Every structure is written in C-alpha cells, then in structure tokens.
Fold this protein.
Amino acid sequence: MKSDMEQISNLSGYVNIVGAGISGLSAAITLASSGIRCNLISSMPSERAQSVLAEGGINAALDNMGEGDSPEEHFADTMRGGCYLETESCIHGLTKGAPDIINELARFGVPFTREDNKIIQRPFGGQKKRRTCYSKSSTGKMIMTALIDVVRKYESEGLVVRYPDHVLTGADIKEGILNFVTVKSRMTGDVIVLPGPAVICCGGLNGFFEGFTTGTTQNTGDCAAILFNEGVEFANLEFIQYHPTTVAIADKRMLISEAARGEGGRLYIERGGEPWYFMEEKYPESGNLMPRDVVSREMFKVMRDPSLGGTVYLDMREISKSCWKNKLSDLREEIRSYLLVDPAVTPVPVAPGIHFFMGGIRVDDGHRTNIKGLYAAGECASKYHGANRLGGNSMLAAVYGGKTAAESVIKDAGVLSGILNIQEIGKADHSDPVYDADTILSGSVRNILIRGLGIIRDEDSITSAIDELGKLYKEGMHDIDLKRIKLAEAMLMCARERKESRGAHVRSDYPDTLDDYKKTTCCSMNNGKIIITMQDPLKERR
Amino acid sequence: MMGRYIIRILRRKREEDKSYWQDFEYELNSPGDTVASALRNINSREDLKDASGNKAEPVIWESSCMQQKCGACAMVINGRPGLACGTKLAGFKKPVVKVEPLRKFPVIADLMTDRSILYENLKTLRIWLECDAELSREDIDRAFEASECIQCGCCLEVCPNFYCGGTFFGMNGVPLANRLLTESDRAEYEKAASEYKKHIFNGCGKSLACRDICPRGIDTEKMMVNANALAVWKRRKK
C-alpha cells in the first residue's frame, strides 16, 4: 500500500478543472497549494468568465454589524430560502466555513467596502441579518481579480497549467469511471486528450435561454449537455431563478443588483394613478427583501393584473447621496449608461429575468458525481441552494464548493490514482475551429423552453413544450445540437415530474407544497432514454 | 440615427490569408443597438448574404458578458479601439461603420485576435501577492479602481511604444501592479518593482495615448503616476 503522499503525487499533472470562474479558480488554488499540479481549462481567460458579472455581494455571518448574527442563523435562512431541499450537513459546512472564506479573500486583497477598517455588511433578500459583504456593486469582479492574481503565482511555479482558449469536446466515461476529457483550442483547432479526474466548474445553463438571461454568451451549456449524454446524473433542473429586477438591453437582460433594494430601493406598480408599493403591503416584515422567488412571483402577478399599471418600477429615490457615492456608484453609472436615466431621480422599469440555475450536476456533500473521477462545483452543480438561492450565497458556494471538490479529489487520491490511465496522453487530433451551436436551432430550443418553464407553469404548457422539442430532431443533425435538445427535454421532464409548487418552481395546477416532494428530482440518460426519479437529497456517495 | 446601417468588416479566414472588406446590412432595431448586436444578428441569419447579395460565412469574433465588463469583444471600430458591446451604432454620424480586428495582436480569423501576450507579460511582471494584503480605508478606492482592469487590450492598441513581443509591456499591467503595491509595501515586492521598472517605466514614452481609451474608465495616468511612485521612487504609502 502506497503512502497517502505518494498517491497524491501520482495525481499531480492529471487533475483537470473545466471552467476558470470563481469555483474553478478556488479548486485550482486548493490543489496547487497542496502541491498537486492541475490543468485549468476555459474557453476564454478568467477575466471573461461569468463570475465577473456577480454584483451584490457574498454572505458570511461575521456579525460586523453587531446584530448577533451567527452561522446557525445563516444556516436557517439558507435552508428556509431553499425550501428544505438540501442536506443539512452541506449547509452547515457552507455557513460555518463562510467567515474564513471572507477573511481569506480579504487577505488576497479583495477591496471589500469598509467602515472604520471593518468590512461592512448589507441586508439581502430572505435573510434576517445584515450578512452580505461587498465591494460596491462589483463584488464578483473584485473577487475574480484577486483570485486570478493568486493563481498566476501558481502558474509561474508550474502548478497550474492553463488551457485558456479551450472548450470541452468530450468525456470518456466507461463503466462509471471517467478516463479522460478531450478539449479543443478555439484558436488552433487542436484537440488534446487530458487523462485523470476532472472538476467541472462550467457555470449554469443560461446558454439554453440565449438573450433572455443576465449571463454571458460564453456560458453555452454545451459542457453540461455533453456530460448529461455521457450518463452523468443531473438534479433539480426545474428550479430556475428569475431575478426580480432585470432590464432588457441589447442582446441580454441586465441585472440591477439586489443591493439596490438592500440599500433602500422599493418596488411599485401604478394603481389608480398612484404608486402602490405592493411588496411592502403584502409582506410587511421583509417587504422588498423577500427571497427572489417570492418577489418575482408577486411581480408576475401584479404585472398581469389589468386593473394595474402593467409595469413594475424600482424606486431608488430614497437612497442617500452618501450611499450612492460609497456603496453603489458603479450601479448608478451602469444604469445611466444603459438606460439613460439617473436612478437617484427617476424610477426604473424592471421585470423578472432568468439569472441562476439551482439545478445541475447532482453531487454529494463532497461534490462527487455518480461517475468516479468526476466532480462538479459552482453553478453547474446542484448543491446548497435547494429550490431557491438566496442572494449572496452563489459566490460563497462557488468559493466553498470549488475548494470542497478539490479537497475530495485529494481525499480520494488512493482510488483515483488506482484508476488513472495515462496511456491516452499525447493522443491529439486536429480539426476545424470549434463549431458554434446552430443559432437558429438554439433560438427554437430557447423559445420552447421559455414557454414551458416560465415563472408559473402547468402540465399542459410543459407537455406541449416537450412535444415541440421532439419535432426539432432531424437527420444529419450536429451531435452537439442533439445533445442540447436532450438536456432541454430533461429540464422540462423534471418540471413535469414535480407536481407541487416549491421555491422557484410554481405550478398553477399544483399550487401547494407537498411533503412527498421534499426530494431531489434526479435525471439521467440510459440507452438514449431520459429517466426521472425522485430521491432524497444526497449526503455522501458510497 | 435609426434606419439601415452598413457594417463594413475587415475579414480573413486565417492569419496567413489576405484581408478583404465585406459589407453587411443591418437594420437598427433600437437606439441601444451596439456593434455587438449587429454582429450577433448577422451571424444568426439563415443563408447569410453580404450587402451585394453574395453568400457569406458567419463572422468570427469573440464575446462574453455583452455589458462592457469582460473585455472579450475589443476591436477597432471606425478607427478607434473599443468594446463592440459598448459601442452604440446610433452614436455614429454616418450609417457606415468600419469594424477591424485589433492591429497590435496576431489575427486568428476575422475579428478574433490572439491576446495571450497580455497574460504572459503579467507573469513576467510577477503580478501576484507575495504576502497578505493589508488594506486601509484610504486604499480601498484605489484598489477597487485598480482591480477593474478587464485585459481587453485597448490601451495597448493605441500605445505608440507597445508591440507584441517587445520589452515594453504597456499599460495592461499597471493597474494590477498598482493593486499589489497599494495593498502591501513590504520588501517582498522588490523583484516585482524591478520588473516594473524594466518593462513599464523605462519604456513608456509618456505619450498618454492610453488616456481616455479605457472602456472601464480607469484613470490610466493616475494609475501610472501612483505605480511609478510606489515601484520606482519607493514612496511608501501613507
């Protein structure tokens, strides 16, 4: 029996991280700091990752605001916000680990907004205490800059090897074991085979809703589609977060951070010529800062009420001058630039838009998938957020999840080095530069999904969407398009299977939350067929 | 200005091919439409044809965030480098908009360039933390601005002293150097300061061409003055 250290060093050079946003960088730092050389694969450099768009902040019960906050309260808010669909053990890990993560990020030089040299915290939706640490309204960008600099040092030491213009083109999975992944350079067309375990950090599924989300165009969803078709188990795909305050700009939806409401922004709709602050009236306790699923649903309802004004406005006129200057200057600038109004003077029309995917690759508390050697973290993994994610928990989960996944790789070193097959290394191929998914077909898939997976759904709309999707199959179709349609179908089938309303999944035909459905919707491909089952949340894979 | 635009694109299939101009028509849908909107629209057309009715291949270009926060879509638009997603068509006086790849970097195809030199240079400059950051209240705003750089390359495109592979690295490392030197002024940064002097301070001709070009609005002059003070003149932060 080899020693642990030997087994760990066997893996050096053979751990592949796919995705270089916050979770990918976090995984790379964890592996490299343990002396394990890893490959960091991304379609573009980290500066272009979706994580740079994250705005409002990152949660940790530091209790810097002196309200008696604690990880236990953070735990309780996260469980409640997610409608109890996650394992308690993983949320305990996340919320207890959060303060250390903030302290580490501060040591990395993230310029968190401070007062009297103390990181200050703002209120965010669904949380009873001021818990969200932030850098104005550019927290994701600030964290990314710091993490990129940390990783650069490991790059210079050869401990992180970047493949910075590469997309995943395949995953070789046989008998439940991942042997290697293939990646392809967008610039040269070269295909490279990378053996060994992989940590997937490829982001959410917004590429299936092109132009209708707050995400990036690089986040295509292709990586998820490839893995799903190779038998990787996915979970909870019906839970799609509609962020309450987004605005249509050219080619996408622009997010107006929840920080705007955290700092005093109010939602209203016109009723009889007067503004009606409906959230404050309906939910006196938390008002505009109810969890996102609740706010979006209420907005959807009032916007469809013919007796009301039709448009919901975000009224930020009560935010103080000093708050604009010190905490939200970047947000104000962005609104001025894109919407040509000053939010300090003029209310901004907003509507819910697709922002985050609670569902994704099904992982246990250690971020292990159903495939040996395959791990997932960040938005692509279904973990921590249950049926609805709280604002400020995604960046936390990305840092914590990336780290946890990498720690599992280290823990599993014995098994992983036993199955490591480096025969394939060096096998390379060359083909034309990367095929872009058929944009016309992507548009059709998107339109169908939007009809089936709106804020409020029912059996008929979901079933007719599945039928329409079936008509898109045709002879000679490109492989990746075929795989995308399969995953799209799985999303709809998950939504049909959950015959209740919970968090972000609202069924007009099943409006109640049912104990029978306090389960994970699991989906996987078996012999070309999509299988859906309801199972208990997963603590540990055996 | 609403109405029909001509998007005139400098194209080539591979780096070794000869460049040629190709025009595409684009109907402005809204005053917010950008060069990126036009490129996306062109590529989404079934049976793509250029303005003369000839069959055309989709345009190769890079994009990601589509809201000026990632730097992917930097290109030269009507002679000036900028982000396609941040350049509104309605802002131009004439309805013909010329779009070219950045000229300082090797062209991969059409509007896509290889900007990997940016990252190589950052490694040479030793842009990384050597010790824990210590941020005072006064440093926060400077560190924030310094962390905003998106590595798009626009500042290098206009720089008269920068070329790919040269010893002068240009502005893209300056904000980040600023961040590190602002956050800590210990002896650990001697090597980084020396690389800074060699690859930035010594080669900068002070043309200030990079002023007012940053899509993120980073005050490059201020960044340079401050980084010089910290790295070259060893003025300690107060």
